[in-house]
Amino acid sequence: MELRQLRYFVAIVDHGSLSRAARVLHIVQPALTQQLQQLEEELGATLLHRSAQGMQATDAGKIFYEHALAILKQVSDAKSAVSQSTDKPSGTVALGIPQSASGALAFPLLTAVRAAYPEIVFQLTEELTGNLTEQLASGRLNLAILFDDGQLGKFATKPLVEEEMMFITRADSQFACKKKSISLAKALQVPLILPSIQHGVRPRIEQVVRDQGLKIEHVIDITSIAILKSAILADMGATILPVSPLLAEIERGEMRACPINDVKLSRTVSLCASKNIPLTNAAMAVEKLVLELSRDLVGSGKWLGAELLNSSS
């Protein structure tokens, strides 16, 4: 198996056509077909099949595609690590961030990397926590922002902040707090709109509820943060979340955040990297920038409900 065969296979999947992939790769289509056949023979599996939509990956092809992307990225990172300067880091850095943390970090981080390291090609990916964990483990991501649920032992982690979770409603909601704070039991009496179980925040909420001997009786599961916002603004219920994903709506006065007064409900936000795949100079530069930016955002009050943890100071 050769690296060029991996590149060829990825190009075919990405472009959905042998002819388009051949043009992009600057090779003739028969040669591309031959390389694909050799790859399938070596693997003993059919990787692609023709359909009305073009060339599509089989189930085996989808699995191999993920591995091929990871391998090609690690080869690219290895080349960058050898050639790049520590004074002027360059190359590609892929960082993943969960939907429920992007409101606080995504745009400030994108702006900071572009300003500090113009030579770095910065790829910022917003995904479900479960997807980020898989991509970081496989090497498709250099870094990821993850929530410490006790399952991060396979990664090198640097805690950033502890985020308080609050009871959040539409500002004039029928479910809004009558006082300045609310008990967890009373919050659970309201129809709750919560991220689905794939989000790192949901298992944490459910664990605290169980520890208090309580149950979530009425819940609307929504995977998309955008749809969750719309449901809250339609007054279908309330949510229990950190402030960061709903910060814009709270600052505009469209939503109201109310502290939970009888139990500590929070999540630890950590910056994670693989223990097995070394970081390039560019990735280490971005890692340092994330730590500095977290400190600045908390210190300036722009990351509401967040408390800085020692290792990021």
Q: What is the secondary structure topology, with strand pairs?
A:
Layout: H1 3-15, H2 18-25, H3 29-43, E1 48-51, E2 54-57, H4 59-83, E3 91-98, H5 99-116, E4 120-127, H6 129-138, E5 143-147, E6 155-170, H7 184-187, E7 192-195, H8 201-211, E8 219-222, H9 225-233, E9 239-242, H10 247-251, E10 255-259, E11 266-274, H11 281-299, E12 306-308
Parallel strand pairs: 3-4, 3-5, 7-8
Antiparallel strand pairs: 1-2, 5-11, 6-9, 6-10, 6-11, 6-12
Helix pairs in contact: 1-2, 1-4, 5-11
Structure description:
The protein is globular and about 70 Å long. Helices cover 44% and strands 24% of the residues. The strands form three sheets. Strands 3, 4, 5, 6, 9, 10, 11 and 12 form an eight-stranded mixed beta sheet that branches. It has a two-stranded antiparallel ribbon with strand order 1-2. Strands 7-8 form a two-stranded parallel ribbon. It has three domains: 3-79, Arc Repressor Mutant, subunit A (Orthogonal Bundle), CATH 1.10.10; 87-160 and 269-312, D-Maltodextrin-Binding Protein, domain 2 (3-Layer(aba) Sandwich); 162-267, D-Maltodextrin-Binding Protein, domain 2 (3-Layer(aba) Sandwich), CATH 3.40.190.290. Helix 1 (3-15) crosses helix 2 (18-25), helix 1 (3-15) packs across helix 4 (59-83) and helix 5 packs across helix 11 (281-299). The model has no long low-confidence stretch (mean pLDDT 88). By secondary structure, it is an alpha/beta fold.
